[in-house]
Amino acid sequence: MIGHFPKVTANSLFHWGTMRVENINKSGFSQEGNNLSLSECPNDWSKILRLGQESKLFSFSKTGGIFVDILSVLKDNINNELREELLSLAITNGLLERKEIYKFEYEDPETEDIMQMFFETREQALKEAYDECEVFCELSYIGTKKLRDSLGVSEELSRIRGEEYAYIDLIKKYTNVDGIFWNYQNDVNIYSLPLYCIFPHKVSEWSYKEVK
Fold this sequence. Notes:
The chain is of the alpha+beta class. The protein is built from seven helices and nine strands. Strands 1, 2, 3, 7, 8 and 9 form a six-stranded mixed sheet that branches. The chain has a three-stranded antiparallel sheet with strand order 5-4-6, sandwiched between helices. α3 crosses α7 (about 160-175). About 25% of the residues are buried.
C-alpha cells in the first residue's frame, strides 16, 4: 500500500514544546492527536501556537524523513482507488461506522472558504446554524471509540474528520513512514501553516536538540 501514497520528504524540522519522554505518546485531544507536531518555520509557528511557560524550541533532523501528504489523499476525484481501499480497511478494523449526521455550510469571513459544521441531531445543528444556513442530513463515516483511543482525538474531531483520522491511523500501523504532512495554506494572518507530525514510535529515529 505504501507505494500508492503521495509523499513528501523533510530532513530538518522544528518543534515547540518540552520534549518530556512521558508526554510524547500522551493523548492531548488536539488536531494532531498523540503525534508530535513540527514545522519548517518556527518563528511563524510561534505566532500561531499558544506556548506554555515551559515551551522551548527544538530542532529535529533525519536524512530522508518521509511523510504522507494526507490532503492529497483526501482530494476529490484523485486517488479514488486508494481511498476505497483505505475506507474498506478502516471499516474492517472497526475505525469507522456509518451514521446519519446533520450539517450546515457557511463562509469563513477571514479566508472566504466554505466551511462545514457537523452534528449528531437536527436540533443541535439548528441551534448553532446561522439564520441564512440550511441544515442538511446525510450518511457519513464517523470515527469510533477505537479510533479516538488510538489517535487521541476528541469525539467532535472524530465526527467531523473521521475518514481523515482513520486513514492516518492505518498509515501509522501499516506503513513505515515517519508521519503525516498537512499542506495547509502558508499565511500566519489566518493562523495557517503547513504542518508535519511524527508518529510516536518514529520519534526515536530522529535526532533532536534544544535551540539556544
